[in-house]
Amino acid sequence: GAVVSQHPSRVICKSGTSVKIECRSLDFQATTMFWYRQFPKKSLMLMATSNEGSKATYEQGVEKDKFLINHASLTLSTLTVTSAHPEDSSFYICSARDSAGGYPYEQYFGPGTRLTVT
Amino acid sequence: GENVEQHPSTLSVQEGDSAVIKCTYSDSASNYFPWYKQELGKRPQLIIDIRSNVGEKKDQRIAVTLNKTAKHFSLHITETQPEDSAVYFCAARLTGGGNKLTFGTGTQLKVEL
């Protein structure tokens, strides 16, 4: 149980285009999902907290107009990187928290999406 | 906000030896401390966690200790095996912080034969 998927696993796009990444909780409902960015050999940096049915909460320094987050259902959150540039190339990982109870704090991570902007 | 420091950044041990990774946190209101193992290009996997009302927790070869007074917690791996080689991250959750986790900088553990 507690599986989180991400799609796509890898994507290459041209500079100036937009890319959408999906994060799904497969066997549980998640009112809250989190989006992280990870550079090679670096830690996970929280970008934003995605809240079902409401606006995302962005961390300081993260441009909300560049990284659009939509959490329209209890099992799906999307991150859209708009007008991508090479410096946006990174590993993007989402996580989700089970809303139904159980261990209240654990976050389940998706497999990540490797974005390369050329 | 919370700040988590992690040491060492790299750790090399011989198979069968023990490995210890240490983290400190800044906000005494943090109440949950998970440890994740991440293999190259893969998702972080929770290996053990501890809440602030507990001082120690053990799961087979893995243990975590928490010193709330000093605001530090440690991961202990005994009888290390080559498959333990990975990057390990500690994290802290701030009470009232919306379940956000602040991660440490990671430790690259290499278990040598």
What is shown here, in short?
Chain A has 118 residues and is mainly β. Chain A has strands spanning 4-7, 10-13, 19-25, 32-38, 44-51, 57-58, 67-73, 76-81, 90-97, 107-109, 113-117. In chain B, β6 (56-59) and β7 (62-67) form a beta hairpin.
Task: Give a quick set of tags describing it.
heterodimer, A: 118 residues, mainly beta, 7-stranded mixed sheet, 4-stranded antiparallel sheet, 11 strands, B: 113 residues, 6-stranded mixed sheet, 5-stranded antiparallel sheet, 0% helix
Query: How far from one another are the termini of chain B?
Result: 41 Å
Structural Rg of chain A: 14 Å
Strand segment tally of chain A: 11
Largest interface: A-B, 22 and 24 residues
Strand segment tally of chain B? 11
Helix content of chain A: under 10%
> Uncertain segments of chain A of ≥5 residues (pLDDT<50)?
none
**Element order of chain B: H for helix, E for strand:** EEEEEEEEEEE
| Percent in helix of chain B | under 10%
Give the biggest beta sheet of chain B: 6 strands, mixed
- The secondary-structure class of chain A comes to mainly beta
Architecture overview:
The complex is a heterodimer of chains A (118) and B (113). Chain A has 118 residues and is mostly beta strands. Helices cover 0% and strands 52% of the residues of chain A. Chain A has strands at residues 4-7, 10-13, 19-25, 32-38, 44-51, 57-58, 67-73, 76-81, 90-97, 107-109, 113-117. In chain A, the strands form two sheets. In chain A, strands 2, 4, 5, 6, 9, 10 and 11 form a seven-stranded mixed β-sheet that branches. The termini of chain A are far apart. Chain B is mostly beta strands and 113 residues long. Chain B contains no helices and eleven strands. In chain B, 34% of the residues are buried. The model of chain B has no long low-confidence stretch (mean pLDDT 94). The chains are: A mainly beta (118), B mainly beta (113).
